[in-house]
Design brief:
Elements (H helix, E strand, L loop, with lengths): L13 H4 L8 H11 L4 H8 L3 H15 L4 H10 L6
Helix pairs in contact: 2-4, 2-5, 3-4, 4-5
Length: 86
């Protein structure tokens, strides 16, 4: 086992290498919508009643499913595709 926390891993597990299902879950859409409203990861965690690490996981999966690598791109694509709205 690695001594680094999971959020600090520098590799992808075989599960993460699989092609993701492109449909966002309800929670992923909720987290993306809150991110679009300007909330920090800590604020999103508090609002949703989940941990900071869970928020990171949801955001990571959103990025993978949308094929982006930043919050700005994820939010823009979310609006363009009608996944989120204000």
């Amino acid at each position: 086992m690695s001594s680094l926390p999971q959020s600090r891993r520098f590799y992808l597990s075989p599960r993460e290498l699989q092609l993701p299902d492109t449909a966002l879950t309800l929670r992923e859409r909720e987290v993306l919508g809150l991110l679009a409203q300007g909330m920090s990861y800590k604020m999103i965690a508090c609002e949703c009643g989940i941990t900071f690490n869970t928020v990171q996981t949801h955001i990571k999966r959103v990025y993978m499913k949308l094929g982006v690598n930043s919050a700005t791109k994820a939010i823009l694509l979310g609006f363009r595709k009608g996944i989120i709205s204000l």
